[in-house]
Amino acid sequence: MPNYKPEGLLIDTPANRQAFHSLSALQEAHASGRILESRAVVCDPDHNLIVDMGAWRGIIPRDEAALGIAEGTTRDIAIISRVNKPVCYRITGFVKASDGTVIPQLSRRAVQQECQDNYIASLVPGDIIDARVTHLESFGCFVDIGCGIPSLIPIDAISISRISHPRDRFSPAQDIRAVVKALEPGGRVSLSHKELLGTWSENAAMFSAGETVAGIVRSVEEYGVFVELSPNLAGLAEPREGVAVGQHASVYIKSLIPEKMKVKLIIVDSFEASWRAQPTRYFLTEGHLNRWRYSPDCSDRLIETVFDGD
């Protein structure tokens, strides 16, 4: 059974590259129904995609470029936006141009339909899956969950620590993990991300009172400054002039209070910096979640996500 991964993960594999070594290799891939990947190089005026296959230029007709195009439920921007990016497809046949050039005929829609039927339709809330970031909007992060099929992680589901925009956490083409939050009508999948970044206790265990550590300023309020220590842990520092959202900071940890899920901080310094935060640490990368509780057992405040049950 094929492994239905986000687009871009297959293109540089030896098996994929081997398919373009000769016409006979392409014909074998056609006969076996293999899923291939190549870079789309042109979207013509009729919104057909032209694909770089080494010595050949394959064509994905408009109606075969994505699920829903033929029915009008998917807009043509889904085709146009694939130019200069990897696309998956199957070879459906070959035609010869008037000059004798062989033009492979391709279908991305067929691969997406198979991915939908054999993989996405089998997902249930709580499943942890692979995803690749495609683009970012103020309200959330769009990802490819398999063969170019899109899904959304709303901004408030990205992490416990609040961010002003998904770009604070992700970048296009980044490979991430996500957890299925819900299955929506029409086969769409709603995702979450924060449940994979650890509980309050797991994150707090990485820090100790008396340490001075790195952080990122996420919010400046009259009563204090919220500084993120990790994506699922932020603390409150006393007000300080000249501090701005997005700045990096060095902060002294006064105390960690699990009963109140609080971290008390003192800002030693805050400054602009060009470097990015450390790569995301996942506490969970595979399997299934029925229930995830962020709150420590000793806390009266309950923050949790229930994936199964009522």
From TrEMBL:
Residues 126-194, 210-236 form the S1 motif domain. InterPro entries: NA-bd_OB-fold (IPR012340), Ribos_protein_bS1-like (IPR050437), S1_domain (IPR003029). SMART domains: S1. Keywords: Ribonucleoprotein, Ribosomal protein. The keyword Protease does not apply. GO terms for molecular function: mRNA binding; structural constituent of ribosome. It comes from the Bacteria. Gene3D superfamilies: Nucleic acid-binding proteins (2.40.50.140). PROSITE patterns: S1. GO terms for cellular component: ribonucleoprotein complex; ribosome. The keyword Ion transport does not apply. Belongs to the bacterial ribosomal protein bS1 family. This is 30S ribosomal protein S1. It comes from Anaerotruncus massiliensis (ex Liu et al. 2021).
